[in-house]
Amino acid sequence: MSRHLLGAVVAMALAAAVTGCGSDEPAAAGPLEIWIRQAPDSDAAKTATKLAGAFTTASGVQTKVVALLDDFETKLQQQAAQRNLPDIVINDTAQLGNMRTQGWLREVDKAALKGGDQLADRAWQAAQGSDGKYYAAPFSAQSFALIVRKDWREKLGLQPPQSWDDLAAMAKAFTEDDPDGNGAADTYGFVAPAGTKRGYASWYASSMIYANGATFLTPNGAGKFAPAVADPKFVEAVKFMQDQFCVAKTVNPGAVSNDTTVTHEVFEKGQGGIYLVGPYVLARFEQSIGADKLEVLKVPKGPSGGPGTLGEGENVYLMAGSADEAGQQKFAEFAVSAEGQRIGMNKDAPGAIVRLPVNTTVDMGAERQAPGWKVFQEAYAEAVYSSAVPNWAPIRQTTADAINAVWADCSADVKTGMDALATKLTAELQAQKAS
Fold this sequence. Notes:
Elements: H1 3-19, E1 32-37, H2 43-59, E2 63-68, H3 72-81, E3 88-92, H4 96-101, H5 121-125, E4 137-142, E5 145-149, H6 150-155, H7 164-176, E6 188-191, H8 200-211, E7 217-219, E8 225-227, H9 232-246, H10 260-268, E9 272-277, H11 282-290, E10 294-297, E11 312-318, H12 325-336, H13 338-345, E12 356-357, H14 364-367, H15 372-380, H16 393-408, H17 414-431
Parallel strand pairs: 1-2, 1-3, 6-9
Antiparallel strand pairs: 3-11, 4-11, 4-12, 5-9, 5-10, 7-8
Protein name: Sugar ABC transporter substrate-binding protein
Family: Belongs to the bacterial solute-binding protein 1 family.
GO molecular function: maltose binding
């Protein structure tokens, strides 16, 4: 049996397990179980608990928050196999296709969602499946920008970068000119989560790719796509970063094996001065490094295109098989309301689970004073969401493997690597019936 056919059989079995119980009596509704992809006892997990508590106060519906970070999707698979999915999952927008393919999600009636008309059209786009239907309520949005060591830049007399040449020059200076003044060659320009776990290399590269006017896939008819990774603009963006790894050597050592957890710590330890990342770590870094030492700058337009960075965020997913569909609906409506969004934003404190509000009635400037948030908000207006294929997860992983390979091997030819990637993506799109 082929891998894709086997996957389809498993998906159908799981879907049947979570959506139908045969002659079994439906399970009695208990507390509404809410899973969120955050570390237990983290500031973000505490914010999620605060949100759930406010919902209970407003609705009378009891809740139980489960915060998990490691192997989140694997643990969901295990729950599905046991016919015991949580009622609500707050998870990445990019996971919509994966969860929908496995039959885990209830369809959301956009028109019937109270407050749905107050949500940004761009945010609703991230809740839409490849069939045009909606399978989640938008909850949080984010774009990407550069968090930069302002104290280093000013010490070296550099101006904010306006081009990729400027960006490379600043990275070189941060690497070679002792920006922290300790007399040791122990700093680098870029810190990067460039490993393959959960597709991080692709996730990190996305903003540079979009900033150069490139994309992973191009539309090729209704619901159909073709790979665009062999396009010269795409190759140019990946090659720019390969040069930083291999020629200029301005990226922190070990980056090709790192995920975001490690990369956050590398940045906090002062081992690098440029971090292309989302706004969710801004408050943390301002506390650990100092707000006066940091600044948020837009990603410069690439030599062949732009502007634009990756657009993503989190959705509230209403999971199939729940014994409390009314409670699911009420929670989704509270989460997207102005009150729910403000709680999730958590002002300027660490632990925001709403990075940029999706409810257009929320004034972010009234909630947050840190100027960096405004840069992320402006970047979101030009952000690019992943293509609405049935399942983005294997595409992100396949592209991460290929991009990581040419960053980790300095003898690798980027064009050759991206040509091979295009062939693999064609096969994946065919397997998803999206080619």
